[in-house]
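Hi V.,

You were right to ask for the full record rather than a summary. Here it is.
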Amino acid sequence: MKTFIKYLLLSIIVLGGVFASIYFLLLPSQLNSYTYTTEQIALIRENDLVYDFVRAGKSTLMSTALNNDAKNIERTDLYLVKDTDLPENVDYEHLYTVMSTLSEKGYDNEQVMKLIKSATLDELHILMDSPLPVNMDVLYSALDKKFPVVQAYQLSNMDRDLSSLIMNDGTDYSTTVKLNNMGYSVEDIKALNKLGNTELNMVTVMKYLEDLPTLVSNESFDMKLLPRYIMAIENEGYEAEDAIVYVNDNEDYVDVEDIDMYGLYSDDFRTENPGSYTALVNKNHYLNADYAPTDITEFSHEEMRTDVATALGSLFTALNEQKFETIIVDVGYVSYSEQEELFNRYLEMFEDDEEKALERTPYAGYSEHQTGLAVDFYIRGSNFEDYEGYQWMLDNIHNYGFILRYPAGKEFLTGFPSEPKHFRFVGVEAAKIMHDYEWTLEEYKTIFE
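Predicted structure:
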């Protein structure tokens, strides 16, 4: 019995060896079925890698790598990947280029494979053309959270607290990056996130306001009053918390009867960028004598800038569709010399009494009409505020890029008495903001560039 078992075991060993020999003899032919070329198979055999290649299964990537460089036989750890482990319909030449470049950049094999499975080849070109990320773990975490490669790469090079705020706290990537680039810290941005999306997006196009995070954190903060808070801080020296109390209690308000309209004039500030739709011209922001817009045209027998005329055409069409009486443009563009002549006529009329003359018209250089962006309307037979379509205009004129420039109750901010007929073109985007938050141009310019 023992002899039988001994011979049985010996037979099994012999047969196993025979089958193994047959298997290994057949391995090279298996490589043929994987589309390796004769030269590649010879290279594989020369490096004693036949078994590894057969065990790996069909690898078009490895074949492509060998076609590009025979030395890649030494990079089986990177390129010997089974076809079924890669995305379907992949461009293997493109894949090889991306993988080899990433490897040369310094990504290890595991990192390269993770990137290949996390993004498209085209998306990975940003990594091919860029230095290694500062925080590799953040890159992979961002890709796992489905951030686009560009954003994931940028996150990986950010301060960790900032990238964590975006990835883990659910803050909007674009908005957060803009706020940080403006100068707001991570803690500032956390405070600002108390705002709604619309207001937060608006903050990204405002000036950098150092006190804004503190203001927003106060439960009594009111976005409509933000410009006045900033004025109280910058012009009157209030701390942020005290500015909220001061403005919310309307302590900054000055009754129109108590405003020294004449004394407000100064030459402290020359109007910056006078061609801008939101250029500020008032009693302390003046225009040079030689400033004149270059795109003057005519509408309703008055001169004005081209975009103003276009917007007025649309406005007049809308008023007609509403069946309102046609309004008339009374004043449009007024040059510096024309304004100077007008003021001098009033000065003569009031026997050199400047205060009385200024009640009728500003000094030359201090009139918005010189910008070509201001228009005065009138309606035959009545004051313009009695016009049947006046309320409709107040409710809708921002859609055409206009604001009521000198509203009642805001004289302490504009420095001018209420003037219901005087409208100013600022562009649709700015006009909508000013309408929605009930801001004058002075308030808007306090927080916007």
